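PROTEIN DATA CARD
Card holder: GH20465
Chain length: 368
Origin: Drosophila grimshawi
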Amino acid sequence: MAKLLALLVILGLSALISGERIVNCYWGTWSNYRSGDGKFDVSNIDANLCTHLSYSFFGINNNGDIQTLDSWLDYDLGFIRQAVDLKHQNPHLKVLAVVGGWNEGSAKYSDMAGDWNKRQNFINSALSLLRNNGFDGLDLDWEYPNQRGGKWEDRSNFVTLLRELKEAFAPYGYELGIAVGAGEATAATSYEIANIAQHVNFINVMTYDFAMASDGQTGFNAPQWAIENAINYWLSQGAPADKLVLGVGSYGRTFQLSDPSQNWPGAPCRGVGGAGMYTGDGGYLGYNEICQNNWHTVFDENNAAPYAFSGDQWVSYDNVLSVQWKMDFALRMNLAGAMMWSIETDDFRGHCGESYPLLKTINRKLRW
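Structure generated from the sequence above:
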């Protein structure tokens, strides 16, 4: 009887673990090259804050084979091995290899998906990458089918590619995820949503970047209404709620105001804001930079999002309160969980309070 009770307890715990909501932590490994307190490596990762760690990025060559984009970092410095070793800290952690990303473009992926031989090269090289390095699965981040040099056939070819990957992964128990454009305009152009959903374990919906300086005016990076519209569109097109992972950006989009006295949402801008002390790119600031700026900050209730400004600089981003709103929505909709792009721009050193305030907010809502 005691053995039976022990077995039931173990099975119960396993069920809880397997049914746990996803907290997918994307990690841009190039943050190792940032200076000062912006430098981020494996030692800065708290493995217990993630159910999945998405190691970003790998690319492909013209034959469809997956290739490293930084062999010195991946292998000479041993970042892949160190990332996989985080499973010693959290035995339930899944470490995924992420292939693609914005900088990889779309044309090579379009060619690969539409060519049987190149698809097989991709699939076989994926199996080798996962098996040889101890990864638990693959996250395919093609930005985007039928866009940026792609073609209409990408939509159906993407379904074929995912189906073949799923079949190849099945004997090994590898997970298969994808990262997708969120809004209806992008999603309707790029995806046969109901069909791709059949072949993946989860779908990371990139619910951010809804406003950019190229719009000519300030706007919110991830307003609540926009993420709700995006998720509702994916659901309406046949994506199961329990496969949708809500994206949270740990960064803000920045704008240079045309007139510093006009500093409200929708005010005219003349271009991107200045580069941050860590990230170093115009138009973009990490939350770890924003929280130290001491700019004038406003929380916009209509958009459930903050913005901040100083002089002619303006930024829209997420903070603890807006992330709470997003997680409440994810819970109401019974979504699979949340992902963060990306953990190295959260306040991981705790300069503005506790370490990882945004990632911990996600965990407090979804897991703790």
